[in-house]
């Protein structure tokens, strides 16, 4: 078999066989296929697409390029959640402890491997790393112990999981080939299948801050991932959610942790962030068999916030994994950049739109995110968004507070450009667009 012929077949729009796909991914993993050829193949897939069988074969070949996690020593079902990536998305920090608390009675636990932030989107691992001492790179044994003892485990993915994805993702990042439904499906689902959970809830983001800009594309991605999961007898459901503005008031690692702690304490229960986190948690409980109906599941979630069991599950998880649980009740002890700069509205009007991608990039430039994988983070840097889309502003109202160690680099105009302010308010949009199962 020659890689040249595979690229040619895909360029001409032909479907690749399982053997061809396995040959490519084996070559990516052992380094025998040069990056130039993989880059050409990735671009051909972007243009020509892949059918369901090819997407499934690519997912499996990528899953089998490395190790798989065996969670079977922990009794009961394990449920996972994955988001396709957004700005200010801290739902994992909230729903992990909720699922741990609510799943206990039926033996359901929440097993998640998370990523580090890259580009305009943050990563759960970095947000958890704001807790002093917390081990965010658990060994397989520590991961299983956390799952068994606290009902929740979250760790950075180890390098032996899906090495082919790591290589291909790095190539996609520099060849403008990230936004492809089969490539995103295979990248995400290979890692999820290797992670060993029995059930998976997907949060597919749609809008200006997401990979999928239109509802049609987001729906197609959700369908593709659900189909791949189903083919592997995974219990799976996707929620398509709006990512046209940052989720919640915080962008940046420690700030996002503070906001998550507020939600777990029962604050802002009507916010999109709380509603989305609670719904995702409820769907996880349903898929994992810990509830029979969505209403029952939502009521259980709500009770775990009211009675403090979700909070205690977080405390247990942090304490077991080396973190300082005291800081959870004392957020002033979390990392915080030395300076803050207030950005004020130059005009009166309603916020009609907020460019979440641009805000994510600004937060990255403050040190809250990485331009390249090896970059060091400033965990205390970030942006507080004071008013969501739809709010009325007076001239001089503070719209953003920017937390930074380099205040001289903050250009207020760059922040104000992310807003569209106009005399009329637009109809508010729901956070949940549709579900796919
Ligand atoms: N997240 C991933 O892990 N892979 C993609 O391709 C896109 C988002």
How does this model look, in words?
There is one protein chain. Helices cover 45% and strands 16% of the residues. It has 437 residues and is of the alpha/beta class. It has helices spanning 3-11, 18-30, 35-48, 52-63, 91-103, 124-128, 140-150, 163-174, 181-194, 215-231, 253-264, 272-287, 294-306, 309-320, 326-329, 356-368, 412-416, and strands at 78-83, 109-114, 152-156, 199-206, 235-242, 250-251, 339-344, 349-354, 382-385, 392-393, 398-404, 419-422, 432-436.
Report helical residue fraction: 40-55%
Contiguous low-pLDDT stretches (5 residues minimum) are none
Instruction: Give me the strand/helix succession.
Output: HHHHEHEHHEHHEHEEHHHHHEEHEEEHEE
Our estimate of the beta-strand percent is 15-25%
Q: Which structural category fits the helices and strands?
A: alpha/beta
Question: Helical element count?
Answer: 17
Q: Please outline the major beta sheet.
A: 6 strands, mixed
Q: Average the pLDDT over all residues and give the rounded result.
A: 95
Write the layout of secondary structure elements.
Blueprint: H1 3-11, H2 18-30, H3 35-48, H4 52-63, E1 78-83, H5 91-103, E2 109-114, H6 124-128, H7 140-150, E3 152-156, H8 163-174, H9 181-194, E4 199-206, H10 215-231, E5 235-242, E6 250-251, H11 253-264, H12 272-287, H13 294-306, H14 309-320, H15 326-329, E7 339-344, E8 349-354, H16 356-368, E9 382-385, E10 392-393, E11 398-404, H17 412-416, E12 419-422, E13 432-436
Parallel strand pairs: 1-2, 1-4, 2-3, 4-5
Antiparallel strand pairs: 5-13, 6-9, 7-11, 8-10, 8-12, 9-11
Bound molecules: uracil.
């Amino acid at each position: 078999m020659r890689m040249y012929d595979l690229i040619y077949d895909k360029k001409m729009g032909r479907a690749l066989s399982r053997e061809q796909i396995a040959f490519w991914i084996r070559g990516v993993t052992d380094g025998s296929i040069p990056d130039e050829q993989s880059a050409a193949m990735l671009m051909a897939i972007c243009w020509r697409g892949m059918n369901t069988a090819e997407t499934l074969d690519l997912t499996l070949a990528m899953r089998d390029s490395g190790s798989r996690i065996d969670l079977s020593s922990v009794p009961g079902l394990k449920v996972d959640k994955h988001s396709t990536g957004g700005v200010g998305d801290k739902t994992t920090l909230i729903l992990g402890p909720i699922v741990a608390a609510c799943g206990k009675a039926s033996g359901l636990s929440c097993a998640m491997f998370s990523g580090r932030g890259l580009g305009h989107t943050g990563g759960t691992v970095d947000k958890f790393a704001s807790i002093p001492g917390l081990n965010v790179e658990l060994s397989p044994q520590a991961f299983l112990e956390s799952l068994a003892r606290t009902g929740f485990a979250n760790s950075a993915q180890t390098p032996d999981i899906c090495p082919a994805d790591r290589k291909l993702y790095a190539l996609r990042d520099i060849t403008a080939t990230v936004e492809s439904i089969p490539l995103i499906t295979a990248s995400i689902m290979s890692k999820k299948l290797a992670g060993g959970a029995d059930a998976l809830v997907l949060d597919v983001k749609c809008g200006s801050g997401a990979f999928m800009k239109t509802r049609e594309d987001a729906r197609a991605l959700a369908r593709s991932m659900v189909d791949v999961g189903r083919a592997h007898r995974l219990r799976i459901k996707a929620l398509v959610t709006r990512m046209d503005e940052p989720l919640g008031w915080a962008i940046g690692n420690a700030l996002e942790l503070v906001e998550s702690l507020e939600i777990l304490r029962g604050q802002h229960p009507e916010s999109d962030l709380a509603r989305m986190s609670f719904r995702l948690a409820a769907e996880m409980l349903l898929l994992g068999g810990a509830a029979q109906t969505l209403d029952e599941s939502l009521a259980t979630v709500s009770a775990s916030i009211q009675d403090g069991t979700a909070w205690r599950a977080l405390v247990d998880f942090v304490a077991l994994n080396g973190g300082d649980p005291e800081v959870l009740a004392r957020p002033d002890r979390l990392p915080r950049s030395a300076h803050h700069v207030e950005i004020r509205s130059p005009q009166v009007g309603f916020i009609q739109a907020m460019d979440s991608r641009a805000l994510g990039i600004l937060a990255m430039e403050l040190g809250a995110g990485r331009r390249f994988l090896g970059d060091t983070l400033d965990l205390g840097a970030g942006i507080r968004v004071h008013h969501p889309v739809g709010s009325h502003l007076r001239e001089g109202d503070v719209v953003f507070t920017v937390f930074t160690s380099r205040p001289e680099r903050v250009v207020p105009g760059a922040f104000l450009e992310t807003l569209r302010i106009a005399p009329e308010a637009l109809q508010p949009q729901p956070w949940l667009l549709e579900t796919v199962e």
